[in-house]
Design a protein that fits this description.
The chain is built from 14 helices and two strands. With about 260 residues, the chain is an all-alpha fold. It has a two-stranded parallel sheet with strand order 1-2. The longest helix has about 35 residues. The N terminus and C terminus are likely disordered.
């Protein structure tokens, strides 16, 4: 048996199903994955189309507002820059707006590997996962982004004016917001790893110091800027989420205990 089969076997066993049974329907799972990906892309497309009707407000009131609030000016360096700005802004908002449905498609694919009693909580799981993601996006937009822009704006001089290229600003904003949204999914990741028996509260407490080091590394990777201010602002809530994840791990294992006794 290969290493990949052994890992898959462990996952399927944790869901109460043997590996041999799942191996028979391997291509069916690939087809289901393809189906859910298509559905998620359709949801993103619909969200993007909806955002077209609010393109001006998205660009003027949402995208450029953080720049204006710190006194920075944006500039376009290419003839098609404004068109690309609107397209990227609409796509970004479409992805964020459709995120709950995308998460729903992901859990629909994962659902066959869950216990029957756990499948009834899929609506709560999707709601909580979406809430964590939007909380991360809001934190990135209202705290991380203004703080980073304010920090950069202090480096202007009388001879050198700081102007922001719109294409680089959009990439910076997209990376920061999506990165913050994904980082805030740490409690949900902790919950499911604990349900599978891979993660325990004792393990998380024992390696807390190591986790803090990893958190700062992740913060440095996710943050598109090399400044320590933005990286620290992202790392601090991650440390708090790590502590919250310990309690979530403990709670999920208590909830999983009756299910394990029933299965035995």
């Amino acid at each position: 048996m290969s290493i990949t089969q052994a890992i898959l076997g462990k996952i399927f066993q944790s869901a109460g199903k043997s590996f041999s049974q799942r191996e028979m329907s391997f291509f069916e799972h690939l087809d289901e994955l393809r189906s859910q990906i298509i559905k998620a892309l359709i949801g993103i497309l619909l969200g993007t189309v909806l955002c077209i009707f609010f393109a001006d407000r998205i660009v003027q009131d949402i995208l450029l507002h953080p720049l204006r609030s710190v006194g920075l000016k944006a500039q376009v360096l290419s003839p098609y820059g404004i068109v690309m700005l609107y397209m990227e802004a609409i796509l970004i908002c479409g992805v964020i707006l459709s995120m709950p449905y995308t998460i729903y498609c992901i859990w629909k694919f994962v659902a066959p590997g869950l216990l029957p009693k756990e499948r009834h909580y899929i609506s709560r799981i999707v709601s909580f996962t979406s809430l964590c993601f939007f909380a991360g996006v809001a934190f990135g937009y209202y705290i991380l982004l203004p703080t980073a822009l304010t920090f950069f704006s202090t480096f202007g001089t009388q001879n050198i004016e700081l102007h922001v290229a719109l294409d680089q600003y959009v990439s910076f904003m997209l990376t920061l917001l999506l990165g913050a949204g994904l980082v805030f999914e740490l409690p949900m990741i902790s919950y499911f790893l604990s349900k599978m028996g891979i993660l325990t509260p004792g393990f998380m407490r024992k390696f807390r110091r190591h986790a803090i080091v990893v958190i700062f590394i992740i913060s440095a990777v996710v943050t598109p800027t090399p400044d320590m201010v933005t990286q620290t602002l992202l790392a601090l809530p991650m440390i708090l989420l790590y502590e919250v994840s310990i309690f979530i791990s403990k709670y999920s294992q208590k909830k999983a205990a009756p299910f394990n006794e029933d299965a035995a």
